[in-house]
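Researcher: Here's my situation. A collaborator sent me these components and asked whether they could plausibly form a single complex. I don't have experimental data yet, so a predicted model of the whole assembly would be a useful starting point for our discussion.
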Amino acid sequence: MLWIAGFLVVAGIFFFAVGVLGVLRFPDFYTRLHAAGKCDSLAAVLVIFGIALYNLVDFSPLNLLVSLKILAIAAFVFVASPTATHAVTEAALIIGVEPWTKKDNPQ
Amino acid sequence: MEHLFLGCGIALLLLMALCLVRVVGGPTVLDRILGGNVIGTKTTVLLLIIGVLYDNVAMFVDIAIAYALLNFIATLGAAKYFLRRKNLPGK
Amino acid sequence: MAKIATFLTMLAFWVLLSGMFDAFHFSLGVISCLLVTLFSHELLFYGDRKRSWVKGTLGVVLYFPWLFWQIVLANLQVAYIVLHPRMHDLIDPRLIRFKTFLKRPISKVTFAQSITLTPGTVTVNIHGDEFTVYALTRSAADSLPGEMERRVGRALEQTK
């Protein structure tokens, strides 16, 4: 159980790192949204699962309640992160931020 | 195990500092909002890790829940606010 | 029926957040849950009651593991693109529109959130039954609506 928790946390940190690298490297705003919206939600959920498991290692009713609370955070992040991404994307489209396209793309 | 969580916390802090590059550098306001949102998600997780390190998860969970809610509402509010502005700086 | 369901959900959430079971705190929870149920019972559970609750819950429960696996695959793909040294050759962003057969608002929202979370696509807007999606690569754009729409339809639209 301890090792599973540690693995989940480390995997989450890896996806956080990928998300940040994507936010820094992608050429325009819309592609940055992909990195931020996806990697962040999965990484946060992974780390939160890991911490909930680690919290359950010495089992007691109080710890179970705390773990359920931690899982409530995960559920909230899962719902809220795509919604925030959606809101920011729509704002960008209405304001008219220029999208990056390939040079040889006829579109 | 404690060392693993300590290392993860430090790594998260470094990643947040990297995100600040995007928040400061822009180029558009929405890029800054996005960077702020990413930092906020990391802060939620970092609060939980701090709770594990101080052996007091029960207290830090409540702070993390409040921070996740605030981060979500702040992002929505900022996006709606700049939706109404006509001439965006650095567009 | 909707009132009772709202009250029970609110009470479970209160107990989860407070964690105190003495008479004073619990009665405070019951009173505030009753107030919330009285004022806003039509917000959480609404619409037609044709489908059974068990079926709907089962559909959602069966849908989520598949969605989670798709999200992991999507993240590995995005990680590959981000870590690739010449990533400008890999990406080909484009805006696409398509119509959906989903009717209920809840399934539309679920579908939009799933699109945002899975390979290389972000939902921008929903107008009636027309989705606007921003795709990162050509293959991601071609894969929509596809299998995910069928699965959401099976999970949440069984009355039709």
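Model: Some features of this prediction you could bring to your collaborator: Helices of chain C lie at 2-18, 23-40, 53-83, 105-117, 138-142, 146-156. Strands of chain C lie at 94-99, 121-127, 130-135.
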